[in-house]
Amino acid sequence: RTLKIGLIPGDGIGKEVIPAGRRLLEALPASLGLKFEFVDLKAGWETFEQQGVALPEETVSVLKSDCDGALFGAVSSPTTAVKGYSSPIVALRKKLDLYANVRPVKTVVSAPKPIDMVIVRENTEDLYVKEETTRDTPEGKVAEAIKRISQRASSRIATIAGEIALRRQKIRAAGSPSIHQGPLVTITHKSNVLSQTDGLFRSTAREALAAPAFAGRVAVEEQIVDSMVYKLFRQPEAYDVIVAPNLYGDILSDGAAALVGSLGLVPSANVGEGFAIGEPCHGSAPDIQGQGIANPIATLRSAALMLEFLNEEAAAAKIYAAVDGNLEDGKLLSPDLGGTAKTEEVVQDILRRL
Ligand code: NAI
Ligand code: MG
């Protein structure tokens, strides 16, 4: 099978880590029967300065018509609004209907407090439909926002969370050690207060996870979002897959990323029907750009995550194992993890372990 992958380095260290992702894919053992074709695509601040748009139409159309998946590095965004500029990744999520944002947060198994969870965030609705209004009243201004929750979006996000839980179990069985016994999905909500919107999310997610594909195979729990934040910090090992509406998922996934040593370790994927974009969680890191010391692991794990959603579990499992091997060994770590290794040395160590 040949997979065509769009490469969108973006700005700053995106240009240093995305090439590492490409080399990793090219270095996968031939026995997997996977070949790759790459197409270089543009987006980001530099692109905006050159072309007046942050996300050229060509990037979107090539991804749509030609690619199976993509790797997106990071883009720098201005701190104040700039006319004509808008975030390319947000636009891509919309244009390609990438309805799920998936963020695994994992330490090595030998860590003092091992963690292995993934947050599955609904990415199309909730408060982020951005339908806000402000009106004047005798008591001053009042601003309101729509929180939209649909059965369709809640059902498909819960379904993909269930699928991820089952797949994680397979990847563990393929030799990736884990702290978990069996697949578990925790539904996040605040339906004690928001009985209609979060109530619909909760009941729809429960229903979706009771489908024959999951019943008896995936354990389902639920938790109110505020107490989840508490438990996320006190007892993070309790979580396997967390599924959440957009806003809670946004906050939980950044909070969870703080549980591991560095932003340079945390991958993500933006997932739609038959398409996935792997994207490291970090930004363009202007403070370390050009020094060759960016941690490539978030990107390498993002490449593996993308492969998971293209149904290439075996290839993904190999990458995860190689990365875990590098981290367990601890001899070639980048400066963000307290080491002195350059990006290139970390990449070479991981490629060797493949
Ligand atoms: P950042 O994630 O770029 O950096 C935060 C800190 O983490 C910095 O000290 C940086 O050196 C370090 N860091 C991040 N990734 C690393 C890696 N792979 N290896 C080693 N150290 C790493 O966030 P910051 O500084 O808030 O934003 C910088 C720029 O990136 C801004 O223009 C911001 O808008 C943009 N940004 C873009 C994102 C995206 O494209 N998805 C996400 C977050 C920020
Ligand atoms: Mg966020």
UniProtKB/TrEMBL annotation:
Highest taxon of source: Eukaryota
GO terms classed as biological process: isocitrate metabolic process; lysine biosynthetic process; tricarboxylic acid cycle
Entry keywords, A to Z: Amino-acid biosynthesis, Lysine biosynthesis, Magnesium, Metal-binding, NAD, Oxidoreductase, Phosphoprotein
Pathway assignment: Amino-acid biosynthesis; L-lysine biosynthesis via AAA pathway; L-alpha-aminoadipate from 2-oxoglutarate: step 4/5
Residues making up the signal peptide according to the UniProt record: none
First-tier enzyme category under EC: oxidoreductase
Entry GO terms, CC: mitochondrion
Gene Ontology MF, one: NAD binding
The enzyme's E.C. designation: 1.1.1.87
Required cofactor(s): Mg(2+)
Reactions listed under catalytic activity: (2R,3S)-homoisocitrate + NAD(+) = 2-oxoadipate + CO2 + NADH
InterPro entries listed in its UniProt record: IsoCit/isopropylmalate_DH_CS, IsoPropMal-DH-like_dom
Keyword Nucleotidyltransferase in annotation: no
UniProt domain Isopropylmalate dehydrogenase-like: residue ranges: 4-350
Presence of the UniProt keyword Phosphoprotein in the record: yes
Family label: Belongs to the isocitrate and isopropylmalate dehydrogenases family.
Protein name: homoisocitrate dehydrogenase
Source organism per UniProt: Chaetomium fimeti
